[in-house]
Write a structure and sequence with these properties.
Blueprint lengths: L16 E5 L4 E5 L5 H7 L18 E5 L2 E2 L13 E2 L5 E2 L3 E3 L2
Parallel strand pairs: 1-7
Antiparallel strand pairs: 1-2, 3-5, 3-7, 4-6
This protein binds FE2/S2 (inorganic) cluster.
Length: about 100
């Protein structure tokens, strides 16, 4: 019992994926136990997060390519074509962010 030692206890976590910062020409890895937001902040991307739970949209970040798994509850379907909330959202594969 109690053998759940992986990242599944974090609802924002799924598999690892890569994010390419187009303006910075940097590729970063987002591990299953990290949020995309934490990786972007560590890289120096200027984001001012709010709720950290996908509800406020303060962290919304533009992306230009990628199969995003949207987990927020604030962006509209139209917004989601160009923006993601990195505090909760992830990707199925490499994504390209305008940062
Ligand atoms: S910080 Fe609120 S939606 Fe990401």
């Amino acid at each position: 019992m109690g053998g759940e030692t992986d990242a599944r206890s974090n609802p924002a976590a799924t598999d690892d994926f890569e994010v390419y910062l187009a303006w910075s020409d940097m590729t970063l890895r987002v591990r299953s136990d990290q949020t995309l937001l934490s990786v972007l902040l560590e890289a120096g991307v200027a984001i001012s997060p709010g709720c950290l739970t996908g509800g406020c949209g303060e962290c919304a970040t533009a992306y230009v390519e990628g199969d995003v798994i949207h987990k927020d509850s604030c962006l509209s379907a139209v917004d989601r074509e160009r923006f993601l909330c990195p505090c909760v959202s992830r990707a199925k594969s490499r994504i390209v962010v305008a940062a």
